[in-house]
Structures are given as C-alpha cells and as structure tokens.
Design a protein that fits this description.
- It is a single chain.
- This protein folds into two domains: 245 residues, Leucine-rich repeat, LRR (right-handed beta-alpha superhelix) (Alpha-Beta Horseshoe), CATH 3.80.10; 66 residues.
- It is elongated and about 90 Å long.
- A ten-stranded mixed sheet has the order 1-2-3-4-5-6-12-11-10-7, with no helix packed on it. A two-stranded antiparallel ribbon has the order 8-9.
- The chain has twelve helices and twelve strands.
- With 365 residues, the chain is α/β, with parallel strands linked by helices.
- About 4% of the residues have low confidence.
- 39% of the residues lie in helices and 17% in strands.
- Pfam families: F-box, FBA_2.
- This is F-box domain-containing protein.
Length: 365
Amino acid sequence: MTTAFPLLRLPYLVLMPVLEQMKFLDRIALSLLSKRARMYVKLLKMKNEYVNLKLNVDYILSIMDVIHCKSINRFVVSEISEHDCIPIVAKLPKIDEVVVEYDWSFNVLTDKALFQKEKRLLKVLRTVLSVSSAVTISYRFQNHNHLREILKGKFDAVILKWPDNWITLNDLWITNAKVLEIHTVKLDVRDLNRYFKLWMKNICNDRLEYLEVRIYDKTSVDLLLDGLNAVLVPIETQREFRVLGNVKRFVPGRFGTDRIAFEFDITRADGRQATIRIGTWGTVCFYVWPESTNPVPNQSSLISTFYNSCFHHFERLFLRFLLACESFFFFFSTNFNWNRDYDVHPICFYFLAVLLACWFLNSLF
C-alpha cells in the first residue's frame, strides 16, 4: 500500500517547478480536484492554440478558466442532461460553431419523453447560439418549428446534415444566414426554383452569399431554371467566388463523383448578379456576387451623382453671373449716363433666362 504524497503542501517555490514538469492534460486533471489545486494550476498561465476535449458541461468553465481560454472554436451538443445546465452554458464566451450531432432515435423513448428532451435542447441552443456565428445540425427535429427557430437566426453559416429534415419553400424564405448548406434529399426542385425567383424580386434573405443544396439525384435543369432568364456560362470559364471572405470552391458529393455540369448567371431587379452551378449528381450551388461588382449602379447613386454635378455647375455659373452683372452695370452707368429711375427689371430677367439656359446645358453635358 502506497502513501499519498501531499503535493499541495509543498512550498510555493518548490511546487511550481513540479507542476511545470507535468503534462498538459495532467495539469487539467489536477485542477479539477479542488479549488486550491485549480488556483496553483491557473498560476502557470497555460496557453495552447488548440485543445480538443470531450467532457461534461459541469467542467467546461473550470477548465476554460485554467487554460485562459477566451473563445470556443467548436461546441458539440452530443447529449442533454436531465438537470438544468443553462446557468453554466450561459457563462460561455464566444463560440465559433455550434454542432448538434446526437441521434436520440436509437434510444427507446416515448414521444412525450423525446419532446421534453428536445425542448431542453432548444433552451441550450437559444443560449449558446446567441454568442455563436455558425451552427451545424445533424439531428432530426420532431417539432419542425424548432428547426425554423434556428433558421431565422442571423448566423454566418447554417448547415443541415440530417437527411430526414424536410425543407420547404417557407423554410428557405425565412432564413437569414449568409451561408446555407442543405445536405438532404427532401427538397423539392420546384421550391428551389421559386426561392430563386423570390431572390430575383429582392423579397427574401438579402444577407445570403452562398446556398448549397445536395439532392444526390440528377436535377432537372429546365425545371430549376424555369422563368429565371438564366444566361449560360461556359464551364471552362475561370472564376472565383468569395464566401465570408474566403474563396469557395465547388465541393463534390459524398461519393466524390459530382462535377460541374452547368453554370448560369441570373440578374436581380436591382442589378445584383448571382451564379448557379449544377453538378452532375444533383449538387446545386448558388453564389451571390458582391455589390461592388454590380455593373449597374442603383437609382439612388445616379440621383446623387446628378445632384452633385448640377450643384457644382450652378455654383460656378452663379459666380460668373454676378461678375457679369457687376461689369455690365458698371459699363452702362459710366458710358451711357445711366439714370437711376430707369427700369432695370427687363435686363435682370434677360440675364436670369440666359443663366438658366446655360446651367441646363452644362448639367446635361
């Protein structure tokens, strides 16, 4: 039988070098034993660019405090505990991506129990999604309204991976994400066509930069592009599309056999352009061009440019008009013995008419 070594009773100057020699994960494990152990480990000021830990939510805050973690790259929800974890989850810092990947259908649960568990899941998501910029769903929601609540959020990216999540036109219409990826077979091509028509009328998600739909079946091009006035672009045309600041390339399907078969450009009512890429096995990618590449300026910019140009010409002509009037009256009074009682109104009206005519011609040219 071995006797436990009183490690934390060592003097500070002796204890700290011992802790420094421990492995990174051993230090984290030591910090979970007591508040005193956590205090000493925290004094080491451990820093690591990337830490991959799978643990209970009760230990998250303690470990993040020890390693001085300011943000979470990926927060995975794999199980929902029975007790209330909202007070702990609410203290989490910025989260880059939230992932829901657990499948409760393998557990023998009644519909009522499954519904209650889903409600607890939604409470957790409401808390963490408020500090997150992206969410990946690999779970089939029993209540479709719960999924729609997530789709309404203003995220940078929303990715749906569960094949049984049926997506309708209303689901697409209410989305606010900049990037939306749907890896599902249950999406009607007609609904996708109607969504593109809504985008062309500028009455749907104006934040959208990229939409990807993987149907895993051959898509009817005529049905997808019906009424879009799409312009065919040669496949060999080399173009790069940026999504969230990064170059987005065409990603083949899950079997790696999907390639670009067609590429089309469509134009919205306000001149904004987008490109539709269709793969050989049903992958549809929709890229929205940045406003800076919009070849047709909007109406407000035209009015502003015309107004500034006219104002500049009017100011210049008005100064010339004042100088001309001053010169004319000076010349008239000195050479023709001008009488002050003489009516000068016709002369003023004449100069004003000439001024307006010159201003109008200058504004046109």
